[in-house]
Each structure stands twice: as structure tokens, then as C-alpha cells.
Design a protein that fits this description.
Shape: elongated
Largest sheet: 3 strands, antiparallel
Radius of gyration: 26 Å
Number of strands: 3
Strand order of the largest sheet: 1-2-3
Order of helices and strands: HHEEE
Strand content: 25-35%
Structural class: alpha+beta
């Protein structure tokens, strides 16, 4: 008969499987740590927008803070409190702002820092 053809075996090596497994694990850990931070940010942003939409430009700041506290209780966010709101009035508008930072621990002494700034306004410009 003729010469036998030698085929090389192809596929993923054990080292490749380990590499991709570690990479997927790291991405999964990051996602599990980061997604809750941004869902909380979205809830806070939605609360400020809702308060600004409902409120009258003459609404006292204490009432705006109390309403924000209700949203915090319902939505379950704890990074920001009604006392953290900066409420200013200018030209017939009430502007509600909040700035905050979230530190998310990753591994040992390594953390991720997220800085957020949210603003909403009420009243006619």
C-alpha cells in the first residue's frame, strides 16, 4: 500500500483551558461587583428625576429631602441620604444635586472607586 498520512491532533490545550477559565472568572467577579453599583446609581438618578418632576419650585428643601428618603427606603439604596442632597434655588428653579463615591472591595487591599454626580432641576427656566 502507500504511505500512511500522519495527522496532527488539533484542539485546545490544558493551558489554554486554564487561561480562558481564569479570564472568564475575573470578568465574572468584576461584573458581580460593578453591576450593583450602577443599578444603585440608576435608582438614585431616577429618584432625583422623579422628585424634581413632582416638586413645585417653592417646595421646602426639608420636604425634598424627606421624599428622597422615601425613595431610598423603597429602592433600598444606602450610599446617599437626604442629608447629602445639595439643594439650590436660582431664577425660579430648584436644583437638586448629589455627589458621592462608592468603594467596592475586590481582593485583599484592592478596591474599585466610583465617583458619581447626579443633578435634577424643577421649575420653569
Amino acid at each position: 500500500m502507500g504511505t500512511a498520512l500522519v495527522r496532527r491532533q488539533q484542539g485546545v490545550s490544558l493551558l489554554g483551558v486554564i487561561f480562558w477559565g481564569v479570564l472568564v472568572g475575573i470578568v465574572l467577579i468584576l461584573a458581580l461587583r460593578i453591576v450593583p453599583v450602577y443599578t444603585e446609581y440608576a435608582a438614585i438618578k431616577r429618584a432625583l428625576a422623579e422628585i424634581a418632576q413632582r416638586a413645585d419650585p417653592q417646595t421646602p428643601p426639608s420636604q425634598l429631602r424627606a421624599e428622597f428618603g422615601k425613595f431610598a427606603t423603597i429602592d433600598g439604596f444606602t450610599s446617599v441620604d437626604g442629608r447629602d442632597l445639595v439643594i439650590t434655588r436660582e431664577e425660579g428653579r430648584t436644583k437638586i444635586e448629589v455627589r458621592y463615591q462608592r468603594l467596592v472591595p475586590l481582593v485583599a487591599n484592592v478596591s474599585l472607586a466610583f465617583d458619581f454626580e447626579i443633578a435634577a432641576a424643577t421649575g420653569a427656566p
